[in-house]
Amino acid sequence: MDFLTIIQILDSTIRLATPLLLACLAGFFSERAGIFDIGLEGKMLIAAMFSAAVAYVTGSVWLGLLAGAASSVALAALHGLASITFRGNQLISGVAINFLAAGMTVVIAQDWFQLGGRTPSLFGGARFEPIILPFAEAVADVPFLGPIYAELLSGHSILVYVTFLLVPGTWWVIYRTRFGLRLRAVGENPAAVDTAGVSVVGLRYAAVAICGVLCGIAGAYLATALQAGFVKDMTAGRGFIALAALIFAKWRPWPAMWSCLLFGLLQAIALRYQNLDLGVFTVPVQAMDVLPYVLTVIILAGFVGKAIPPRAGGVPYVKER
Amino acid sequence: MANEAPAIELKGISKAFGPVQANKDISIRVMPGTIHGIIGENGAGKSTLMSILYGFYKADAGEIFISGQKTTIPDSQAAIAAGIGMVFQHFKLVENFTVLENIVLGAEDGGLLRPSLAKARKTLEELEQEYDLKVDPDAIIEQIGVGAQQRVEILKALYRQANILILDEPTGVLTPAEADQLFRILGRLREEGKTIILITHKLREIMEITDTVSVMRRGEMTATVKTSETSPEELAELMVGRKVLLQVDKTPAQPGDVILDVKNLRVVDEMGVERLRSIDLQVRAGEILGIAGVAGNGQSELLEVLGGYMDATGEVRVNGTLMPLTGAGADGRSRRESGVSHVPEDRQREGLIMDFAAWENVAFGYHDDAAYNRGVLMDNSAVRADTEAKMERFDVRPPNPALAAKNFSGGNQQKIVLAREIERNPDLLLIGQPTRGVDIGAIEFIHQQIVALRDQGKAILLVSVELEEILSLSDRVAVMFDGQIMGERLPSQTDEKELGLLMAGVSGEAA
Amino acid sequence: MDVVPKWAEVTLIPIISLLLAAIFSAIVIIAIGEDPLNALKIMVQGAFGSTYGWGYTLYYATNFMFTGLAFAVAFHASLFNIGGEGQALLGGLGVALVCLLVPWPHWTIALLFAMIGGAAFGALWAAIPAWLQAKRGSHIVITTIMFNFIGAAVLNYMLVNVLKPKGSQDPATARFAEAVHLPTLHDILAPFGIAFSKSTPANVSLFIALAACVLVWLLIWRTRLGFEIRAFGKSQSAARYAGISGVRITMIAMLISGGLAGLMAINNVMGEAERLVLNPTEGAGFLGIAVALMGRSHPFGVFLAAILFGFLYQGGAELAFFTSIPREMIIVIQALVIMFTGALDNMVRMPLERIFLALRGKEVR
Amino acid sequence: DLGGKFDKSFNEAAFNGAKRWADETGGSFREIELQSEAQREQALRRFAEAGSNPVITMGFAMADPLSAVAADYPDTKFVAVDVTWLDAPNVRQIGFAEHEGSYLVGMLAAMASKSGTVGFIGGMDIPLIRHFGCGYAQGAKAVNPDVKIVANMTGTTPAAWNDPVKGSELTKAQMSQGADVVYAAAGGTGVGVLQTAADEGILSIGVDSNQNHLHPGKVLTSMLKRVDVAVYDAMKAGENVETGVFTLGLAEEGVGYALDENNAELITDEMKAAVDAAREKIIGGEIEVEAYYTNDSCSALDF
Ligand SMILES: Nc1ncnc2c1ncn2[C@@H]1O[C@H](COP(=O)(O)OP(=O)(O)OP(=O)(O)O)[C@@H](O)[C@H]1O
Ligand SMILES: Nc1ncnc2c1ncn2[C@@H]1O[C@H](COP(=O)(O)OP(=O)(O)OP(=O)(O)O)[C@@H](O)[C@H]1O
Ligand SMILES: [Mg+2]
Ligand SMILES: [Mg+2]
Questions:
Q1: Any CB–CB contact under 8 A between B20 and chain A?
Q2: Residue D90 in this model has a pLDDT that exceeds 90
Q3: In terms of CA atoms, which chain C residue is nearest residue D31?
Q4: Cβ–Cβ < 8 Å for A238, A219
């Protein structure tokens, strides 16, 4: 395949990887603090709905983003209430949140817009427009590097750049700051944090809140940057893929980025080459469609091996019974 | 000294966990610059009381005075602020953090880590000088020995400028050498004018180092005496409520034919490190072979290999039949079938399933036993009945088969494991750290059981880091160091000093 | 050391939790301008008011029992099998093949082999993730998620390119032969003089599901294998000490789990649709997770939770018929039920504990 | 159909037809959106028992349940849209010649395309969607024999109907393969296709109901499937609606292409002329548009 095609595939990789990466980092914060979260999907979904709805009503995508994040944080808080304050089962809570979002988004959107759970299409200021990096046009014709800069790196929405900056950001926060140290500690052994005179509950709520914000951005990206409005169930399982990517990355920020990019790439390839014609026979669309998932399993079995989750992950912190 | 305010004064402390009254109206006063011992049976309420003082649990009633001032301690933060530091029975360290990270955790200055760590490193060096508390600040906790881990806990407290230091069963996991070092450190701290509370099950330690000692029973403070004015026997009686034999009395062994025969046993772990290097040993019927050694010198591996769940090369014969050391047949079940019982070192991780009821734990490992099954189904009532009987005979408290293992005290947990393994009357009993964290009442009982089994003509391989225990129980003592057997001695013809040297790797000839 | 007595644990707490869920659902319904009491009446009427309602309620419940049990068994070995959906899909394929390829003389024999087929396919679909977990340590949560997607694609391919009758627009297999149609509750109860609605999908599979509940209970709590599964699930280090093979338990638990999920197909594919359509499971596999967790992985709990969700499904459908409440409202209600009964149960338990402690405050030692 | 009302195409069209009837005649109708397979039969019985007449069903998936139910309610009339192969006396079966409509928009696409490459994006990979694609391809080839047709399906799970993000990516992927007109037959996913096409400045073609207004001047046209008309007529006829099998093609105005102020300047007169000519020919039988179903394959396009 020619160079330009590669660029285009990578370009699409970045777009597909961005929401995954946001959700993945969201899960990263939550699970590093010992709170398992299979509710990423739901938080993304509700954020997508509210960001689109508010962006449409106010005509400002930023207000939309804000609303999306807020709604997602609200669900995160619910998850916190269940799993931190009331020491409930974190998995059930996650499942419930996914259901809740799937239902609520449509019920509310229908109640507001009577469009069967869709929001009206967004125009102009109600959407994130692509950003053309400086001199993108100028260098576009420079052989090799030109296209990479102009086609691949330039022309994404602000959220994409923010997301990829979040990776080093996350790394720095987790490994270079007091908050990060405590966050990791509370995910490994909350009793140690508690006896060190730091509030376990406080830390965990903070982590869950961050998770909510990031999921919120992810949802807003789907509905107001990639798309121009909310369509029911538009997250289409990306929350679960993000979770897979997180485990895949063994709960570390940089690997998280790479695994999300890998998932994005596999999807991009699958979308680009349906019905691969191998001369002898053509690979059916179904096969290409599941390629990402099959390869994930193979890679997982072949190269990644055991992934050890944070030790206190999933278990509520109880000192008295 | 009389007119001086006590460093710590507790008045009428009470605490209940649900239905369990862990502490009942407890009052003590501890003078500054002294070491105060607290003893009591498992479950007496020692840890709870200290946890309250440290703000880990909240008391239901009672007052706390720190050097005269009434202080409320809602959480550990307040305790730290009041200059209290605590070394918990089950360490509260982050396993995969470095020593340094564990020490600064919660005591960082500033939002950034680098400066905090740098500062901690400096302070650490000073503390090391001051109390010769040696630890590598960059070592990962799970890769250093328990002794070192405990020093980290102490450093944590000192780093937070604690004047009052609480240690809950600190020597439970230490070798005599390590224990002695700990006591030197405590001595220093006392000289510095710091106040220390020491919870232990070992009267020797109480007599050795404390100034005053309190005895707890069933959640109540039954007595507080000056150490100089009491004796181990008296304390033991105060604690258990009856006379206790502190020495094991046993007749000389009549060794029979060889039961366990080990030749050239080697273990290499996945990192390629040699854990066992060509071990040869024999245990005869009717004798106890004691394996002494500092924790982490291959004793655990030896037990796991003999127990059937660690791969190895070499020869292991039980009653003359060769035991497979890898692949099929190399598992606990097949070992049991060939007459080997195993009381593992770590009752909470291996010996028991903490969430299982006592009766399920009694069946655990022997659940295939015909007596426990009716056709395809398990006969739970039979298991329960058997459990009640065993609890009766081993005087497990509370004698309630339905109670989850985690709700028994360490001593009673250990009794359950012993009951399960001993009552099988095996040809060979492997037993590791039989009395770790167990109160003297229970220790006496457990030791009697072991000796009784020997007298029935069974072979017993005993691994313990308690030299005292090794010397009083064993008929022969082998010392392990760095995966090798450094030498073998007869208890009658050796002493803690010589064994100590062997344990330190100074070879037999030199010693 | 539980403070709350068993009877309260199994009655008071779930009931209060359900009440809370109902209250919050009512708030939402009011918010979209509908009458919650009327809604409740319609749901209860529709689900339990007639044998017709029961027929559907039990039909859905049957699905959830199978998938709930499937998840529960794996969960006892601390294996988080999210793959119930895919395993049930493949089970459907297995059942369909059995029913289509052989001209069965009588439904009984057909059912027997359909069960084998469904269970086998489901187990097969669970076997690969299980093996990868046991041997390669690949995280079973990921692999099972992936296998859900893959399973859906396999089914789609089979239907569109292989099993679809030529010329049909509907990506589904042909209808199964009359002979393999399973008797519905109507057919079964008629001999006993019980007039059960003729037009409901509930069928013999219900009894197989009930039997499965009992068998799983026996397996987990009364057999050596179950004992080993639970032991392994609670403490792998202890299991290793006792000589319980992790690989063996992982494989067996997952095979049983997948098999149960696959068995669901005898209800929805053989019993209801009587042909294999796209997406025959409709999320029952995922709901099974909630059902199992709510049922505390105990077969009886699973049974109750399955009935509860059967009620929500059927009651919800009736709601959609008779009001203009959007169908997604049902999902919201389900979510609230899962949340309150499954995750916020301590919100109810903690106050109760205080009450009970106060009551028996005297007899504390 | 499970797709849900307001999918901006198929089901919505039906709903609009019903509403139009209700508004005009003041009559009342009840509707239900199914959420599970088992409810198909359930719903039919419910309505039949509730005395609704006629009972109108949407989508091929209702065929099988209908075959089971219809007989039980002989004096209820059923109207089955997208079903043509049952033999039930009391069922009015309405099929649409989607391939004919698709043929026309295919022609328009080929004519509007400057690159000589046109795209087709289906939702879930099912025969019906292939049927659309097949007609489309034939139309395009008729205009420009060596036109390149890029065809994609969004996925293999029901999620494929509601994944606009994937729709967008597919559109971009097809653009990168030269496509400058994209025909979306993919329910909610199509929203993403039309959106991206509009953003990227290429043309798109809507489906089922007239979607031109979604992005005025950027949607070339829409393949109309006059479900609304069918529903409207059925309701108008009421109890005594005529049963039997009816295929609504171009002749019956059952399918067609949308021309309104939103796309007026996109469709040049000669394009219109050419298409209308073809339309006549198809009606007249001079052009035979191959249907995918006839032998589950398509000569003009392989999937
Ligand atoms: N976290 C807890 N939750 C509930 N009950 C507890 C808890 N900790 C202790 N208990 C109860 O309080 C009683 C006293 O426990 P505590 O740990 O203070 O005993 P202890 O003297 O430290 O025993 P040991 O010598 O074995 O350490 C125990 O019998 C136990 O039943
Ligand atoms: N969470 C708990 N719930 C109920 N009882 C507990 C709990 N934690 C500890 N206990 C009880 O408190 C008492 C002392 O427990 P502790 O934590 O001191 O460890 P332990 O039982 O003494 O074990 P070890 O002797 O090995 O240290 C025991 O009776 C133990 O069963
Ligand atoms: Mg204690
Ligand atoms: Mg203890």
A1: no
A2: no
A3: C321
A4: no
- Whole-angstrom distance, CA of residue D130 vs CA of residue D134: 6
Mean pLDDT to the nearest integer, B318-333:
91
* pLDDT of the residue at B207: 92
Q: Residue B232: is the preceding peptide bond cis (ω within 30°)?
A: no
Output the domain CATH number for residue B125: 3.40.50.300
Question: What's the CA gap between A106 and A115, in Å, rounded?
Answer: 9
Please give the number of the atom of ligand 1 that sits closest to the Cα of B216: 21
> Model confidence at D155, in pLDDT bands (50, 70, 90)?
confident
- CB of B46 within 6 A of ligand 1: the answer is yes
Residue B178 lies in a domain: yes
Angle, helix A40-58 to helix A200-220, in steps of 10 degrees? 60
pLDDT per residue over A53-83, tens digit each? 999 999 999 999 999 999 999 999 999 999 9
Q: Are residues B190 and B62 part of one domain?
A: yes
Do B378 and B299 fall into the same domain? no
The reply to whether B212 and B113 lie within a common domain is: yes
Contact (CB<8Å) A236/D172:
no
Pair B57, B184 in one domain: yes
B205 domain residue, yes or no = yes
Distance from the Cα of A129 to chain C's closest Cα (Å) equals 32
pLDDT at B166 over 50: yes
Q: Which domain holds residue B464?
A: 253-339+426-511
| Neighboring chain C residues of B367 at a CB cutoff of 8 Å | 224, 227-228
Query: Chain B to chain C, count of Cβ pairs less than 8 Å apart?
Result: 84
Task: Flag if D157 and C156 touch (Cβ within 8 Å).
Answer: yes
| Mean pLDDT (chain A, rounded) | 89
* pTM given for the model: 0.86
Q: What residue segments make up the domains of chain A, in order of their start?
A: 3-236
Same domain, B477 and B430: yes
Residues B130 and B35 in one domain: yes
The verdict on a CB contact (< 8 Å) between C169 and D128 is: yes
Q: Which amino acid is at B316?
A: V
Asked whether residue B173 is assigned to any structural domain, the reply reads yes
Tally of structural domains, chain B: 3
What region, left, alpha or beta, does residue C192 occupy, with left being phi > 0 and alpha being psi -120 to 50 degrees? alpha
Reduce the secondary structure of C257-306 to three states and give it as a string.
Answer: HHHHHHHCHHHHHHHHHCCCCCCCCCCHHHHHHHHHHHCCCCHHHHHHHH
Out of C56, C273, C327, name the one closest to residue D37 (CB): C273
For C282-331, what is each residue's pLDDT tens digit? Answer: 889 989 988 998 888 999 999 999 999 999 999 988 888 788 788 788 88
Find the B234 Cα to ligand 1 centroid distance in Å.
24
Inside any domain, residue B130: yes
Per-residue pLDDT at B173 exceeds 80: no
Q: Percent of chain A having pLDDT more than 70?
A: 95
Q: What is the CA radius of gyration of chain C?
A: 22
Give just the sign of the alpha carbon dihedral C82, C88, C93, C98.
positive
How many CB atoms lie under 10 A from the CB of residue B156? 27
- Predicted ipTM of the assembly: 0.85
Write the DSSP assignment of B306-352 as a string of letters. Answer: HHT-S--EEEEEETTEEPP-SSTT-SHHHHHHTTEEEE-S-IIIII-
CB A197 to CB B108 under 8 A?
no
Interface of C with A in 120-159 (CB under 8 A): 128, 132, 136-139, 141-143, 145-147, 149-150, 153-154, 156-157
Q: What is residue A163's three-state secondary structure?
A: helix
**In a shared domain, residues B430 and B294:** yes
Helix intervals (H) in chain C: 6-10, 12-31, 36-48, 51-76, 84-101, 107-131, 140-157, 185-189, 205-222, 224-234, 236-242, 246-263, 265, 284-294, 299-322, 328-337, 345-359
Question: What is the strand order of the sheet B258-268 is part of?
Answer: B274-284, B258-268, B313-318, B321-322
Residue that is last in its domain, among B240, B273, B307:
B240
